[in-house]
UniProtKB/TrEMBL annotation:
Transmembrane segments: none annotated. This is F-box/LRR-repeat protein 18. InterPro entries: F-box-like_dom_sf (IPR036047), F-box_dom (IPR001810), FBXL18_F-box (IPR047948), FBXL18_LRR (IPR045627), LRR_dom_sf (IPR032675). It comes from the Eukaryota. Residues 15-62 form the F-box domain. GO terms for biological process: SCF-dependent proteasomal ubiquitin-dependent protein catabolic process. GO terms for cellular component: SCF ubiquitin ligase complex. It comes from Aptenodytes patagonicus.
Amino acid sequence: PQEIVSGESEEESNGVNLMEFSDEILLHILSYVPCTDLVLNVRRTCRKLATLCLDKSLTHTVLLQKDYKVNKDKVKQLMRDIGKEIYQLNMAGCYWLPSSTIDHVTRCKNLVKLNLSGCHVTSLRLSKMLSTLQHLRSLAIDVNPGFDASQLSSECKATLSRVLELKQTLYTPSYGVVPCCTSLEKLLLYFEILDRSREGFMLSGQLMVGESNVPHYQNLRVFYARLAPGYVNQEVVRLYLAVLSDRTPENLHAFLISAPGSFAETGATKNLLDSMARNVRLDALQLPKAWINGSGLLQHLKFNNPFYFSFSRCTLSGGHLIQRVINGGKDLKSLTSLNLSGCVHCLAPESLFRKAEDDIDSSILENLVVSCCNLRHLNLSAAHHHSSESIGSHLCQLLSRLKHLLSLALPVCSITDVAANVEKPPTASNLVPQTFGRKVRIGIQTYPRNLADQANQKIESSVFWALMGSLRFLETLEVIGSSFSSAMPRNEPAIRNSLPPCVRAQSVGDSEVAAISQLTYLQSLTLAQLPNILTGSGLINIGLQCQHLRTLSLANLGMMGKVVYMSALMDMLKHCKCLRDLRLEQPYFCAGAQFFQALSHCSSLQRLCIVSRSGTLQSDAVMSFMANCLEVIMCHMFMGESLTVCKNLQQSIVRSFQADRPALNVVIFPLLHEDLTEVIRDVPMRHLDEITLFKSRVAEEPPNLWW
């Protein structure tokens, strides 16, 4: 109390007293403070704050999903103090909390929305908790091995019968609680079932006979399914779809299935799609590529006011896109999110005799831009979108008209200035193969490190510079090589060799990276397979200008035999005060004392992932970094060190910091070790999905799919 009084008197002497602000202003300020701090700490400072911290606007919704400092005792006290005032509780990804923590949720008698994805919940605990939550209408849970629906009480089933929205992540073949939810309007299913058990036994997708009744879909408005790689996931999702094929819900307006690889169409799924074409009008659509390729499905489906389309990895041509989806520009002002990732022919009139590297037809993209003028999220990655040297406008010039864009994903070869490529042939450095073979001595052009000097080198006149200047409010940008593949695929051994970059991408380097620094509000940046990075000088500009940057992912920049941008990266990191997630994937990366000293300037950093074939690390430097950066709760390193070095460092970090950081997750392991996939399966899904595994995330899902 004495410290508080002295603090207030100091404020008064300077003419400013926080307590003199209006309640409205104070409530707005307090809304940025984690709820656990408000209730357990801030409200104990003075009477006024004691009242404000319990205001309904602050206790109505409690978000614990990224409050990495929360523990079981804090949750217990929080529920005891304000449990009855909580209407929405989000504990998604709180993997570090013991399952007994869920018992305290029963104090929240008025809960309407509850998210427990990533939490440890047994069938019995779920039954006990849901039996007391009679007002619940939205629920998200995981279904793990050992889940038994027969253990759910009648009171629990009564609660589930009133649930309107269900998000269910499956780690075992099961219907979960879906059959109990007889009033479902929104169903989100995430299939994360592995084909083999830990013991090496093959799993079957056939659900146990008598495990559940038939799911109830008659009121369904939204159906979403995302499948991880694996045959079992495909088997199980077909069982969920079987009911839909018998009778399509009349009110269905969003139907989305995200499936990697080949997911063949069957008679049942064909009947489902035919029924949808006859009976429903959709607002959101995503289908496996095999269901769209070569079929006339899109010609028959009807759309109402579509806000999301994903044709990821489909062979859909630009001609079909314009004719069957955009429909001449009619009724597409409502479209806010479009995913054409891996859709290699989507900007060409036809795909029959076309090569993937052929030039695009700019008139198709222009039609798309005009028709979908309100797009906020656009993904054009994983394809060769080469602008013509002589016909039509450049891709970057056309995209600059989309003034509402918040997130954008582009292939590296699409941003190169065609005129520059014609005037100047590739330099010797550009022609060096991107392999791990014998090194070739080449002359290195010296690039200026100052942004003003770079501007004098024609970059302000480039089409990519102009694009970045026109998208001032862009928050997420991905520039990924069209042939890039991460060294860490999901359920397979690490990839040892990568494909060379596209010829058109050979000139993309430091000046293009510098152009990104114009994005003042940039929060997330991904750069992968930019072959002409010579010094990384553009990274410094981004660090200086993009002060809101929270997520940074860099992969395979410059020559593959040496990390040419290390000095610039270290300079950049000194300015990234808001950076929370950093992912680096680069062969021969040296995670030494200088790197970690620079990284220690990122005071907000929470998650670090380094993937490096033949990479090295200094254990002492890692330990010092973890001691200095108190917010770091995830450290994943997949390097070229021995298994003994990795295990010893991992154990040292856990032993030294686990007690003070309950959410600490550490994985340090040789990248090329045969047991890598077994190690990966134990990583919490939150980290695995958001940072450890590389993927394009722009327009991956419809906006606001879940709260």
